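Re-running the complex after MR caught last week's input typo. The corrected sequence lines follow. Everything else is unchanged.
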Amino acid sequence: GAVVSQHPSWVICKSGTSVKIECRSLDFQATTMFWYRQFPKQSLMLMATSNEGSKATYEQGVEKDKFLINHASLTLSTLTVTSAHPEDSSFYICSAALAAEETQYFGPGTRLLVL
Amino acid sequence: DAKTTQPPSMDCAEGRAANLPCNHSTISGNEYVYWYRQIHSQGPQYIIHGLKNNETNEMASLIITEDRKSSTLILPHATLRDTAVYYCIVSFTGNQFYFGTGTSLTVIP
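Corrected-run output:
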């Protein structure tokens, strides 16, 4: 199957700083990427849908000014958590849609800890 | 919101078939049924998907009822490495996934 990578795999930062997470489709071009968040012992929650060259679509309750998404190319989407606070500590996962195969492939996730 | 319901947990003996049910009674005509699994602290792994017909690949089989209101994922010979949370998702191709709570499968030696 298609491979999706994320960088970094884990990050620790101080409260008030910004953190950027990269999501790359390694062997295919993805016109659409998705960002999810997962808190301990909970399911994945969709945060936003990212389309190459256009603004992301955010789910209800997700602050677009806090979670900045950029999808600059067909293989890269970035999520920036601005002014991170301890409650933003979570497991952030991206996925990329491979239209020809009707499926989504997920990255390994990025664990964020805000102190 | 998730359009699926799954039992919260199941056990299966190693080497036996694991049958994981999923109800999706409000599925639309062109929505696919997808199955993914998530092993602790990893991203979800694609298993299989289908629209109307039963599907089989090297990992599993997917049985979809004729009315498409429910489906069953079958792992034919469960191993300890199959212990994971299994998610059933219905979605139009290329669209967002809304995850439910999934089924935590434990394979017992």
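None of the earlier attempt is carried over here. Chain B has no helices and nine strands. The beta strands of chain B are 9-13, 18-23, 32-38, 45-50, 55-56, 61-64, 70-75, 84-91, 103-108.
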